[in-house]
């Protein structure tokens, strides 16, 4: 049996919009390059083992049997990894996968889930020693496979910073020590999956302008990360996050991911000019705050002042899956 834990990542420049694909290898290719920070405490823990030809495949997510859609998606991904490693695909297997953070709320659980699954299958097929060598030499292949499960998973195969361009993500050589403090305003599963958001984005009248603007924003953001300059990085993060939500709001169908509470918090924050923490958002209602120092005490004061209730998840940067 293999056991792997992988972390979600928070995108600083977002993957929002896919190229149309004609085959499985082309699944989840992005319309733009993206850059993210891998997290450390939030994780998906996945156990994988083959159970023999006559057994039936069992997949449990969060200690419950997976839904038909999740069984299909997961089985397809296992076969994809097995095929890439030239391993037979006719054996039944069992998977147990659990998150230590709430799913579908803007902490990218599909990223950690597919990174963990990709590693767990490869580890089981190759064995610990060969996998270690394979991992050292084939990070791009692992990233490419993880991407075929879920685009953002391509960036969860290493850390702390990953840049995804084309088929796979690679390490971006910055060492800026940042934290991600997440305000969980809602634990409800998000109503619109990001796969639908990627589709609707392209119908937004703002989408083509965004694609033109992104290379310059990415360059500036990379420079700010390398220079370890949060004052330059922060406004870029906020501009990027707001743009994603504006594109979602103006696409067809229109999608609103923010809740009244998260909108209220962001509006308040935007008026505070003297800050050393900055927000970013994924496709969900929760707010990620990027900082160099521990800001949880300041946030508690701020939330009380605004009369807002939420859970606070304090995370920091991570270095990729552990097995
Ligand atoms: C808003 O990776 O979840 O988090 O490829 O369809 O699985 P699929 O989409 P997914 O999209 C993530 C979108 C995002 C931004 C990002 O992580 O870059």
The geometry reads as globular
Helix share bin: 25-40%
Main sheet, how many strands, which sense, barrel?
5 strands, mixed
Low-confidence stretches: none
Strands ordered across the widest β-sheet: 1-4-7-5-6
- Radius of gyration based on Cα positions: 19 Å
SS strand fraction: 15-25%
- Write out the distinct hetero groups bound to the structure: ligand DP6
- SSE order, as H and E? EEEEEEHEHHEEEHHHHEEHE
Structural class: alpha+beta
Query: Please, how many helices?
Result: 8
Count of DSSP E strands? 13
Average residue-wise pLDDT: 95
How far do the termini sit from each other? 11 Å
How would you describe this protein?
The protein is an alpha+beta fold. It is built from eight helices and 13 strands. The strands form three sheets. It has a five-stranded mixed beta sheet. Strands 2-3-8-9 form a four-stranded antiparallel beta sheet. The longest helix has 29 residues, at 109-137. The chain is globular and about 60 Å long. The N and C termini lie close together (11 Å). The model has no long low-confidence stretch (mean pLDDT 95). The site of ligand DP6 has 16 residues, from helix 4.
């Amino acid at each position: 049996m293999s056991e792997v834990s992988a972390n979600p990542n928070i995108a600083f420049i977002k993957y929002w919009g896919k190229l149309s694909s004609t085959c499985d290898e082309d699944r989840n290719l992005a319309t733009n390059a993206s850059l993210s920070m891998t997290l450390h405490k939030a994780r998906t823990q996945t156990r994988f083992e083959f159970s023999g030809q006559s057994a039936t495949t069992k997949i449990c997510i969060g200690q419950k049997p997976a839904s038909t859609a999740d069984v299909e998606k997961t089985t397809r991904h296992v076969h994809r990894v097995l095929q890439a490693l030239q391993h037979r695909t006719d054996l039944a297997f069992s998977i147990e996968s659990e998150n230590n953070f709430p799913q579908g709320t803007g902490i990218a659980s599909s990223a950690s889930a597919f990174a963990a699954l990709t590693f767990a299958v490869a580890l089981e097929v190759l064995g610990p020693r060969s996998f270690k060598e394979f991992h050292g030499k084939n990070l791009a292949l692992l990233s490419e496979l993880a991407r075929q499960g879920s685009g953002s998973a391509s960036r969860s195969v290493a850390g702390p910073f990953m840049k995804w361009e084309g088929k796979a993500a690679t390490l971006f050589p910055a060492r800026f020590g940042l934290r991600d403090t997440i305000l969980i305003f809602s634990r409800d599963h998000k109503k619109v999956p990001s796969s639908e958001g990627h589709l609707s984005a392209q119908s937004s009248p703002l989408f083509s302008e965004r694609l033109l603007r992104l290379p310059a924003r990415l360059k500036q953001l990379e420079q700010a990360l390398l220079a370890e300059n949060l004052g330059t990085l922060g406004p870029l993060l906020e501009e990027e996050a707001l743009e994603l939500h504006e594109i979602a709001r103006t696409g067809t169908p229109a999608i609103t991911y923010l809740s009244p509470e998260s909108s209220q918090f962001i509006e308040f924050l935007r008026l505070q000019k003297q800050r050393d923490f900055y927000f970013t958002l994924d496709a969900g209602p929760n707010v990620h705050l990027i900082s160099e120092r521990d800001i949880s005490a300041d946030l508690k004061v701020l939330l009380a002042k605004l009369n807002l209730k939420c859970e606070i998840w304090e995370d920091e940067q991570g270095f990729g899956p552990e097995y």
